[in-house]
Design goal:
The complex is a heterodimer of chains A (154) and B (285).
Chain A lengths: L1 E6 L2 E6 L6 H8 L18 E4 L2 E4 L12 E3 L12 H8 L9 H14 L5 H7 L10 H16 L1
Parallel strand pairs in A: 1-5
Antiparallel strand pairs in A: 1-2, 3-4, 3-5
Helix pairs in contact in A: 2-5, 3-5
Chain B lengths: L7 E4 L3 H11 L3 E4 L5 H6 L7 E4 L9 E4 L2 E5 L4 H6 L1 H6 L1 H8 L4 H4 L4 H7 L5 H8 L3 E6 L2 E6 L4 E3 L2 E2 L6 E8 L4 E8 L6 E12 L2 E10 L9 H7 L6 H14 L10 H20 L3
Parallel strand pairs in B: 1-3, 2-3
Antiparallel strand pairs in B: 4-5, 5-10, 6-7, 6-10, 8-9, 11-12, 12-13
The chains are: A alpha+beta (154), B alpha+beta (285).
């Protein structure tokens, strides 16, 4: 069926099978491979994207469910050449090692800071509790997000 | 790669439209809300509907409100929205206790209250919560709406009284002065319960007038510990009686051994969690 999805501010019209998952639609049809595809069971959180400004696990959302809605992926974080403070934080605090979990972590971090500009370390850990970093780099991920919060408070 | 088998997909624009679509596609069609139970089941071929009727656009089924002396939770209410509802938390702290430990924040953004109940997974938290609260469940069908007690909603694991062609619309909880709580033991953040218990108590003149005890993942018939409820009703809400209620609940539940633990451990957990939920509901003495 034909769907129209706005991704990072740009409208895309595509024909998809109803069973196509949003994560595959983004990666395979739109070639936006910044969103990663991991466990396929809504456990790992590497596929987190914003659907109407709310983070969801895109391996457990059908592409047809996004018809007529807004999606924001990690490619939509930066403003032109200027990185989002969350991205800057991950650079400044070594928030990634292998980088596989990073897009999902950053999308959740962006949503957290949009709703709570001054989260405690505990708030950050709770927000990320549905996402896995197999490098176990959580300390630096939490620091990166605190760094972004502080930068945005300036 | 896990993808569901092929199916037809229709977006409902109203409750009437959803019922019409369910009638059109017949018994092999299913309702999809947040999809966080159904889509994983479809990927594993444990569910294979020929058609999905998507009710995500039905704003009339979403949200929490107080109406006619009842707290009304729409079936399309996302877990995150029930957790964010101050009204729900003020009247029934058990709802927030449970929502805080259901899956993780991102899953709670998408998964729905109605979807969880209709999945009727024995380890699903809200089934026990609404059973403990003696909630009523409103189901719409081709011949109108019917109301069923939450305790009579569950037929067997993964099976409810919602028939083919019907749609769960809302859950109604009668408002009354009460205290309540939910406690859960899980192996890691966001996991299914090894075991969990919910408690709802109303008291008058130092005597329990209504007791609701829900059990999750512990093999309790209809998700409740009726014998423990009967024991508590009519007596004072004391620590000794909370411990005894736990013993009674443990004796009567029928947990099964699985990778989360053996029967003995789960039975012990049932007793301990019932006592803890009762204590937490009453608050610091």
């Amino acid at each position: 069926m034909q769907i129209m999805v706005t991704v990072n501010g740009k409208e895309y019209v595509r024909d998809v099978e109803p069973r196509m998952l949003l994560v595959h639609f983004l990666r395979d049809d739109l070639e936006l491979t910044g969103t990663h595809w991991g466990c396929d069971t809504s456990n790992c959180g590497v596929c987190v994207v914003h659907l109407d400004d709310v983070p969801v696990k895109s391996c457990t959302v059908l592409a047809v469910m996004a018809d007529g809605h807004d999606v924001r992926t990690v490619e939509g974080l930066a403003h032109g050449p200027e990185l989002d403070p969350v991205q800057e934080g991950f650079v400044a605090c070594h928030g990634l090692q292998c980088g596989f979990c990073t897009p999902g972590m950053m999308m959740t971090a962006r949503w957290l800071l949009d709703n709570d500009p001054d989260p405690s370390e505990e708030d950050i850990r709770e927000a990320l509790s549905g996402q896995l970093c197999r490098c176990t780099g959580y300390e630096n991920i939490v620091r990166s997000i605190r760094w972004a919060a502080e930068k945005e408070a300036l | 790669m896990q993808v569901p088998a092929a199916f037809q997909y229709r977006k409902a624009t109203s409750v009437e439209h959803a019922l019409m679509l369910l009638a059109e596609y017949g018994p092999e069609s299913m309702v999809v809300a947040g999809g966080h139970s159904l889509l994983p089941m479809m990927k594993l071929r444990l569910a294979h509907p020929e058609a999905l009727v998507d009710i995500n656009d039905l704003a009339e089924l979403a949200g929490v409100r107080v109406e006619g002396g009842e707290l009304v939770v729409g079936a399309m209410t996302r877990h995150a929205d029930l957790l964010a509802s101050a009204e729900a938390g003020r009247h029934f702290p058990i709802l927030h206790d449970a929502e805080r430990v259901i899956a993780d924040p991102i899953v709670r953004n998408r998964g729905t209250v109605g979807g969880s109940l209709c999945q009727a997974d024995p380890s699903e938290d809200l089934s026990a919560v609404f059973a403990a609260l003696r909630a009523m469940v409103v189901i719409h069908g081709p011949s109108g709406a019917r109301t069923v007690a939450a305790r009579d909603f569950f037929v067997s694991p993964y099976e409810t009284v919602v028939a083919s062609g019907e749609l769960l619309a809302e859950i109604r909880v009668p408002l009354r002065p009460s205290v309540s709580a939910y406690v859960k033991v899980d192996r890691r953040a966001g996991d299914w319960a090894v075991g969990a218990a919910g408690a709802v108590l109303s008291t008058a003149d130092g005597v329990v007038t209504e007791a609701g005890i829900g059990l999750t993942a512990l093999g309790a018939p209809r998700f409740v510990a009726e014998e423990a409820e009967d024991f508590l009703t009519g007596g004072p809400p004391t620590e000794e009686r909370f411990v005894e209620a736990g013993r009674i609940a443990a004796r009567h539940c029928r947990p099964v051994a699985d990778q989360r633990g053996p029967v003995d451990y789960k039975r012990h957990l049932a007793g301990e969690l019932v006592t803890r939920a009762l204590r937490r509901a009453m608050g610091p003495v």
